[in-house]
Amino acid sequence: MRAQPAIESTAVLAPNQPKTKLFDYPKYWAECFGSAPFLPMSRAEMDELGWDSCDIIIVTGDAYVDHPSFGMAIIGRLLENQGFRVGIIAQPDWNDVDAFRTLGEPNLFFGVAAGNMDSMINRYTADRKPRSDDAYTPGGKSGARPDRCSMIYTTKCREAYPEKPIVLGGIEASLRRIAHYDYWQDKVRRSMLLDCPADILLYGNAERAIAEVAHRLSRGEHISRIDNVRGTGFIRSSTPKGYLEIDSTRVDRPGRIDRIVNPYVNTQEMDECEVERRNTEQLDPNAGVAVKFMPHPMRDRDTTVLRLPSFEKVRNDKVLYAHANRVLHLETNPGNARALVQKHDGRDVWLNPPAIPLSTEEMDHAFGMPFARVPHPSYGDANIPAYEMIRFSVNIMRGCFGGCTFCSITEHEGRIIQNRSHESIINEVKEIRDKVPGFTGVISDLGGPTANMYRLACKSEEIERACRKPSCVYPGICDNLNTDHSALRELYKDARELPGVKKVLVASGLRYDLAIKDKEYVRDLVTHHVGGYLKIAPEHTEGGPLGKMMKPGIGAYDEFKALFEKYSKEANKEQYLIPYFIAAHPGTSDEDMLNLALWLKGNGFRADQVQAFYPSPMATATAMYYTDKNPLRKVNYKSDEVAIVKSPEQRKLHKAFLRWHDSNGWPILRESLQAMGRADLIGDGPKCLIPWTQPEQDGYRSARRKNSTPSGSKHKRVAASKGKTILTQHTGLPPRAGGASKKR
Prior knowledge:
The chain is α/β, with parallel strands linked by helices. The protein folds into three domains: about 30-230, Rossmann fold, CATH 3.40.50.2300; about 235-255 and about 265-355, no CATH class; about 360-365 and about 385-660 and about 705-740, pyruvate-formate lyase- activating enzyme. Strands 2-1-3-4-7-8-14-13-12-9 form a ten-stranded mixed beta sheet, sandwiched between helices. The protein has a three-stranded parallel beta sheet with strand order 21-22-23. The protein starts with about 40 loop residues before the first helix and ends in a 16-residue tail after the last helix.
């Protein structure tokens, strides 16, 4: 591993607006080669294009699908549009360094990403068992990428061409940009920048950052000097001049800290409130009173950095870990976020504030590249399951302001919605209709991370820039949030009325607490865009876990359900609402799961597969899981502990409650119900949850037999059978552009 250079100061960050829009950069000289049918994966393809070399080579853990739902495609096509020659090395043999020399030496840099999914979540279940398939690999075969493949790929790139810069991105790196709890090793790991020989890390959707980095490298600037790009992280030796450094524990105190009394103390070590006071007040020596002055220029957020507790401290102190996680989430709004720094083994990991969200014009530009919309021809007829899932779908927006604590969308895409224009989306529907093989007239999804957040935003840009709330819809919908779905209804109408389009479905998850604010939207959705069943995710029925998830109460679900059934009846359609739930989430007690099981039984739901909570890196719920503390509030050593489900036995019990009808879970449920004093729920009566005896003993029919769902609803059973897939995707890692989530 090459030693990381110590990065010194060059300049502070620019103001809170992008210096250059994506489409305003001067084109690199290689633009004369034009667009390639596919970004090349071999030297033979390069020869056909007339290339002697690649300017940029992207190494990815996914198969190469030239579609805007795949990160390597949208970044590669964007760089191609900037004039660079971009090659792809997809799923290389990580045991052979020559696999990383396939396209030769890049002129500018290697771009490395694990793929649309975190490699560990892609490889292992929530019970840490290896998966038997990989949706992003031809044939769905597992084993095509290594564990923690960002680390392996960067190491091999460095071994192949030691002097070439390496730019690390993708969701795996994004969620590991600081010290983080690693569920698979059950310990706190340091920032991925310390474990990878990468020169710079790009977090979040990286179009803006990658364009600036690429052009600066093309002008001959050394990678170690590129330290003022938003949405990037790197290693540096110390805080540069011009920055005010504030200890994060003085901003959000995790416990008792003695007040600074030395009047000559360095302001970089001072309590933020004390710095504020000293910058605005000065004692008049004649009158002996405080005189107000204008704030010191160093109070500017663009020149302020918060120092998080070091890796060594958060590794050894769970309260400090929860505090660091809380501060990171408070510093995610590009309008007011400050830089963060965290020391690791004597070196500083520096994270610039998040990138400025793309404008609608820039979103149209990014999604309007000449994508082939199919897998690379080298895969032949091999099926790539993730591609099949999004083949006829359209991503209309990015981001999510829901802030669900178990979900990684906000950490990666941000909570400010980035919208494509109406025209851009309709044009993509036409392109699917006219160009994509096998199109039968059905658009499988018109959505995004959350289907009905299109064009929803804060009513005031000034309030939005200043807001530090983690969610716009919890504990209730913010009064400043626009909930008008009219733009989305108009989009649905124009899409479904296109010639050659028979049906436009909405398969992305729905935020039902927002939908009920616009009943006409619910009517349009139910009448025209539901394919038999509609999935939504209340996640639980009880206040304890819902409060830790930052999800609305079950009453909002009931209200949406009433509207859904009303409009389905008016449309003379037999349609079903399918709710999804998570077992073993932080804040969940055995009693909570029992009450959920009774609700499921009372509503006639029998899920074939369920998903337990999966602690993905950097999520707030993961911090709860690891620390037993609640980072949604200020944490200290006396804070109340959160109920955590960690033992395999209790996780098994919680999943058994979700599958209350499965006879395999009855023994553990009987034991638990008796221990809870609820033996009254065991028996043959209508109010009982499970019987006393097993089916083979007295003729009870196993709940696992085919067609065992009550009430004759095949839709309930078919949809519920997909529960494992849907709930897994709450980690924010299915096939969306830049690694974002399609399902909620």
